[in-house]
Write a structure and sequence with these properties.
The chain has 58 residues and is α+β, with helices and mostly antiparallel strands. The protein has one domain. Helix content is 29%, strand content 29%. The chain is built from 1 helix and 3 strands. The protein has a 3-stranded antiparallel sheet, covered by helices on one side. A hairpin with a 5-residue loop joins β2 and β3. The radius of gyration is 11 Å and the shape is globular. 3% of the residues are buried.
């Protein structure tokens, strides 16, 4: 299960990776909720196929 929250004017994606470790990605300031949802969908797709690798984005 993943969620999107807005903290300090930025969207944060909070989820668990394939190893069960909690991951959080803070997106760039000015990112819209629509873009945050798109990023979350990308992450969920990568998790479902087991191809998720943490990268520095935001």
């Amino acid at each position: 299960m993943a969620c999107i929250a807005k903290r300090r004017g930025r969207y944060v994606i909070d989820f668990y990776d394939n190893q069960g470790k909690r991951q959080r990605q803070t997106l760039k300031k000015g990112t819209t909720k629509k873009k945050a949802r798109e990023k979350l969908r990308e992450i969920e797709e990568q998790l479902s196929i087991g191809n998720y690798e943490r990268c520095q984005t935001g």
